[in-house]
Amino acid sequence: MGDEKNETWTKYYYKLSPQEFSLFEDLELIDHTKIHKSFIFSTIKFSINDLKYLVSIFQQIFGVDLLGKDEFNDKDFDQITTDNFWFGRMWADYEKYKCTVMISFDTNGPKLDLCTLNPI
């Protein structure tokens, strides 16, 4: 496969058993040849407590995210329950982390995603 820039990429789909973080049952791996690999873990079965746990794990590892957000809070809860999308958290400092991690939720799916972008 490829895109308009003639970059080559291949997608792989996996069902995870056991689930990653006891939560994610699907994995989409996108191999962008010579650039990076994207890992997108997703689920449609989760609770607010699952989100709190997931944010807590990555916040403990990486600290405050790119936008200055840390622990799951009331604003996050309000956004999830009233909006159609929750941006979540993003850690995207390649020099510091050597990868990008993003947690987001889209009610149009509806699904929860944990995305990582790892340079080759």
Protein model, in words:
There is one protein chain. This protein is of the alpha+beta class and 120 residues long. It has one domain (9-119). The chain contains three helices and six strands; from the N terminus they run βββααβαββ. It has a six-stranded antiparallel β-sheet. A hairpin with a 3-residue loop joins strand 1 and strand 2 (24-32). The model has no long low-confidence stretch (mean pLDDT 84).
Strand tally: 6
What gyration radius follows from the Cα positions, in whole Å? 15 Å
| Mean pLDDT over all positions | 84
Main sheet properties:
6 strands, antiparallel
Number of structural domains: 1
Question: What letter string, H or E per element, gives the SSE order?
Answer: EEEHHEHEE
User: From the structure provided, what is the oligomeric state, counting identical versus distinct chains?
Assistant: single chain
Q: Strand order of the main beta sheet, please?
A: 1-2-3-6-5-4
Report the principal-axis shape: globular
Span of the ends, CA to CA: 18 Å
Tally of helical segments: 3
SS-based class: alpha+beta
Helical residue percent band: 10-25%
Unreliable runs? none
Beta-strand portion reads 35-45%
